Each structure stands twice: as C-alpha cells, then as structure tokens.
Amino acid sequence: MGNGLRIGRIAGIDIHLDWSLLIVFFLIVLSLGGGLFPAWHPDWSPMHIWTTALTAALLFFVSVLLHELSHALVGRRFGVDVDRISLFVFGGMARLEREPHHWRAELWMAIVGPITSLVIGVACAILAVQIAGLTDVDPGGIERTLAGLGTLPTLLLWLGQVNILLALFNLVPGFPLDGGRVLRAVLWGATGNLRQATRWASGAGQLFAWILIVSGLAMMLGLRVPVFGTGFVGGLWISFIGWFLHSAASLGYRQLLIKESLENVPVARLMQTGFKSVPPDLPVDRLVEDYVLHSDQRGFPVTGSDRLLGMVCLEDVRKIERRAWPYKAVHDIMTPTSSLVSVGPQDDVHQALSLLGKHRINQIPVMEDGKMHGLIRREDIMKWLSLYEDVDARLTLATGKG
Q1: C-beta separation of 194 from 188 below 8 A
Q2: CB-facing half-sphere around the CA of 202: CA atoms within 13 A
Q3: CB-based burial of residue 326 (10 Å sphere; 0-12 exposed, 13-18 middle, 19+ buried)?
Q4: Across the strands, what pairs with 117?
Q5: What is the Cα–Cα distance from 129 to 20, expressed in whole angstroms?
Q6: What class has domain 267-393?
Q7: Which residue in 31, 156, 200, 256 has a CA-CA distance of 20 to 30 Å to 126?
Q8: Which residues, in sequence order, are bridge partners of residue 169?
C-alpha cells in the first residue's frame, strides 16, 4: 500500500487516504443510493437520495478515522508512537513505530478500537431515535416507520448500525483484527511468549480468513450461507476480504520473526564500506555512464571537502528528462544531508529496516560524529536473512526510492 494522499495532521499524526479508498467509497454510495435509501424512502427525490448516500459514506470514513485515532492515542499513552494513519479499501490502519513492549499495552490498544466504534454506533442509534421521536415502534410497520424518518435520523440510524457491525467484526479473535490482537495479548500475558502468542493468534486469523473465502465461494455458486446470505457480488467481496485477512495474518507473524532476528544485530555488521562516492559538480550524464551503469549501487554519497553533502539515487535521476542530463549536476538533484535519515554503527538492523520502510528508500547512510562510515541497504538485510535465518523469517520488502 502506497502513501496515498495526505489530507492533514491530527494530534501530531499524519492522515493519509489511499487511492484504493475510492473503490469502497463508490460501492457504499452505490449500495445506499441505488438500494437501501430508496427502499427506506420511496418518496425521496433522486437528488435527495444520492446526496444523503454521499454524506453517509463520508461520515462512515470519519468514524473509521476515529476508530484508528483511538488506537493511536492509547498507544501513545503506553509509549508506542503512531506516525501515520492510512484509510484504504478495507478500512483503516494505524502504523506503529514499534510493537508494544507489554501485553497490557497491546490489550488496551486493541480493545479501544472496537469500543470506540461501539460507542459511536450506540450513540448514533440513540440520537436517531430521540430526534425522530420513536418511542414506540410497531414491528409490523417498520417500512412506514423508516419512510417517516428525516434526513438526519436516517443518516444516524444507518451510521449506528454500520459502526456496531464494524465493532463486532473487529472483535473476531483472529490476527490482525483487533480481536486477534486482544487474543494475542491474553495469550502473551498467559504464556510470557510473544512469538508463540503471535503464532496462535495468526493461526486463528488464517482460519477465520479461510471461513470467509469458502463462504464467499459458496455464495458465488448460489448457495445461501448463514449470516452472509447469497449472491455473486457479495460472495466475491467476502472472498476478497478473506484473502486479504489471510495475507495480513501470515505477514504479521513473519514480521515478528524478522524483528526478533534483526533487533540485536548491529548495523556495523551489515553495512557496506566499499562504496563509491561522487563529487557535487559531476554532470548527471557522467553519473549515469561512469557510476550507475558500472556498479550495483542504487545510491551514491555526494562528498566535498571530506564531508557528506547529500545522497543521489536512481529515483533522483529519473525525475529529470534525459536530454537535461548533460546540463544538470549532481548537486542539482541530490537529497541534501539536512534531509537525509541516518543510523549509527551500533544501532540495530531492525531500526534501519523500519526507516527504510517508513521513508520508502533502499539505503541509509551510517553516520557517527558527523562522519559517514558506510551504507546499510535493503538487499544487505535480505541477504543476511536468507543466509542466517529460517525461511519463515524472510519477508519480501517493497521497493522504495533509490
């Protein structure tokens, strides 16, 4: 998942919208405007229906954002920083700087999300009832009752239902859902073994994912599945969600194995010291011809007067037109030292890996006392994992800048 569109910052946390969000946004608006709201309000005009559907979809994602913010703020209370929240096709995700160090922190961080959604859902439902004055509803006249609701009670009633369902879905005890994290916290507290707890919670998550996949396939074949019902489109989405959860559950366990494998390995052990550096006034075409094409380096330190001035990478070269290469120098396209992220020789490799992923880059300079000692690269970490660790601990890392 890419960075998407940054829409703002709340409580020091960057909020991003992934482009995949457009898919589910469109589907929510379509299902409400083309199905549910016309059924509730056959007398509403098309403009009224579609405007309400659009507003409902926007409010739903606001509630998802509040769900994720609750995770982040409670995490901060326990010393776990969250630098970014991303809203994407399957809801939201708060990106942790590191995993909680204690099972109680994990428990409270996980459980607060469903609690937030449940509180939002119940509050919306109560407000809808109060605003509409629904003191006594005839079970046989539900359609008449719904048709009599105004715009605001309709929005609140739907938002209340969907948030309660969101809370219940997230409480399913399968990692990486919130319920799975609660299960992991309980198992972690009971056994004192985070790896074993993660393995069991991940297994539960994969089992639930397979239930969704099989249920979705059955629905696509025309069978009626308890809770889910039937239908090709609904079955396709259920299967797709199951596939996503299965991948996420497997990935969560592998990430923990990688963290345990790398957090006690110093950067100095894996860094490259025999790197080539380039002068700042070197033309870009000579950089390509003399350095890039004759080296496996993807990034080159830019040095002058025995000090590091910046880094120039393949991505920097790609940003300018080829015909401009002879007229541009390295200092025109490099990332200056002030904008670089770096690690020290004694920092652990997992910290370097986290920075590589966070900034979507392929190498980081290793600095100490203002002097560059080497480069730690994504491929060096992958090579170490492939040589020294069990195959289960290997993770395919997304390629970033450089």
Answers
A1: yes
A2: 17
A3: exposed
A4: none
A5: 34
A6: alpha beta
A7: 31
A8: none
